[in-house]
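User: Hi! I have a protein structure encoded as tokens and I'd like to know what sequence might fold into it. I'm fairly new to this, so please keep things simple.
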């Protein structure tokens, strides 16, 4: 059954097959496409979606205000989805096969209880389209720098287009409103980033004379604020772009005697520190290397020291279910990454080190608001993104990445935690 909906149009991007081979290629898998079509009808009915087809038709009736999946090239969409599942879903968006007038609303509907999207009796089909991450992207010491380069070395100017002036690329912490939900405006973003950093530094008890190790420099804002407190900071990064800008910002602030940035893998960290902080870096470590990561934290921490981490997290069962899957995000945005659960971090630290998680604080809704502000700024500046050498396929990729992440935090599929780790009493 079909109904009429107002037609809309958005130009289909030109896809460079040399740069985007899997986006340019439309697979031909008729049987799988037919299965994907039946799954699409089921998901639309279960989640109350309006699926718009070319020519002003709708796949089925939908309630007023329903999230919209607007198909421009339905067959290409279904064949991509049938061949590679959610990777095909993302590549189909990059190719312009579908759109939505409210991408976050659509993805939020899909991200709610994602384990129920596929009927239980059909989940065995996952083995035909779920792939393992390529060995070349496993975040070993040999591969880690190339993984980092593919994201963080894209362009400092690109990140400056949507981040606030602090160049902080992690969740902010906004002032809570009367209903305890964050209130977020662009004008508040810088203060909210400072609030997040200061809370983490307080958690690690950073003050005058503190010997502080930061794993994952970003563009240097945490190192600057720690140095301003009188700490002596060593910060490690694998991003040459971040290294250059962080060093320049530290020099311009006159803090080069208190803050040093090194191009260094966390595994080779040296020295002894009163505090260690790391903001949303463990996600790049990879599950096989979590024991190594916590062992390094334990090795460099001075007696009586404190470790304060900020980490994106997911429920433990969902982490386990997807721990060996190659996803669209891993393929195109964060190669080699893996999001941990609080339980996984707690158990890994306890099993392999003397460290114990002694405090946690979650603030996932604040990340949703942070991402909304980033996404809005990014989407307002297509010409500036293009001027930096990034084509429409890239812009659509980042639009989907930011919206997908925002939806994850809005549904609770993702969360963000600050964790305090200290040595177990009597541990040596």
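Assistant: Happy to help. Inverse folding works backwards from shape to sequence: for each of the 428 positions I chose a residue that suits the local structure. Here it is:
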């Amino acid at each position: 059954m079909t109904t009429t909906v107002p037609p809309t149009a958005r130009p289909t991007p030109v896809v460079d097959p040399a740069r985007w081979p899997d986006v340019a290629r439309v697979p031909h898998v008729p049987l799988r496409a037919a299965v994907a079509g039946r799954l699409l009808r089921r998901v639309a009915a279960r989640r109350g979606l309006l699926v718009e087809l070319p020519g002003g038709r709708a796949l089925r009736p939908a309630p007023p205000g329903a999230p919209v999946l607007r198909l421009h090239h339905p067959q290409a969409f279904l064949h991509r989805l049938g061949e590679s599942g959610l990777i095909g879903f993302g590549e189909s968006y990059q190719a312009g096969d579908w759109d939505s007038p409210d991408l976050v609303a659509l993805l939020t509907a899909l991200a709610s209880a994602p384990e129920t999207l596929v009927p239980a009796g059909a989940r065995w089909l996952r083995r035909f389209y779920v792939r393992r991450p390529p060995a070349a992207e496993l975040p070993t010491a040999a591969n880690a720098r190339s993984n980092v380069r593919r994201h963080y070395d894209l362009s400092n100017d690109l990140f400056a287009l949507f981040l606030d002036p602090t160049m902080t690329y992690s969740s902010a912490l906004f002032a809570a409103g009367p209903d305890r939900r964050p209130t977020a405006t662009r004008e508040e973003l810088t203060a909210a980033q400072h609030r997040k950093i200061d809370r983490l530094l307080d958690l690690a008890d950073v003050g005058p004379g503190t010997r502080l190790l930061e794993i994952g420099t970003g563009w240097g804002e945490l190192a600057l604020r720690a140095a301003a407190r009188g700490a002596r900071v060593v910060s490690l990064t694998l991003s040459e772009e971040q290294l250059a800008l962080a060093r320049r910002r530290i020099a311009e602030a006159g803090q080069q005697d208190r803050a040093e940035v090194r191009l260094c893998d966390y595994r080779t960290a040296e020295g002894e520190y009163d505090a260690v902080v790391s903001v949303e870096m463990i996600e790049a470590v990879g599950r096989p290397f979590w024991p190594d990561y916590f062992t390094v934290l334990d090795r460099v921490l001075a007696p009586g020291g404190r470790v304060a981490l900020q980490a994106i997290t997911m429920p433990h069962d969902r982490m386990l279910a997807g721990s060996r899957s190659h996803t669209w995000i891993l393929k195109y945005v964060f190669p080699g990454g893996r999001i941990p659960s609080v339980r996984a971090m707690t158990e890994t630290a306890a099993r392999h080190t003397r460290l114990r998680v002694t405090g946690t604080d979650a603030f996932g809704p604040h990340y949703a608001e942070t991402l909304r502000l980033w996404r809005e700024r990014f989407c307002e500046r297509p010409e500036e993104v293009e001027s930096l050498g990034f084509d429409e396929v890239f812009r659509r990729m980042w639009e989907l990445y930011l919206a997908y992440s925002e939806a994850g935090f809005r549904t609770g599929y993702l969360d963000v935690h600050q964790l305090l780790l200290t040595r177990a009493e009597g541990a040596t």
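A useful reference point when you look it over: The first strand starts at residue 3 and ends at 4. Feel free to ask if any position seems puzzling.
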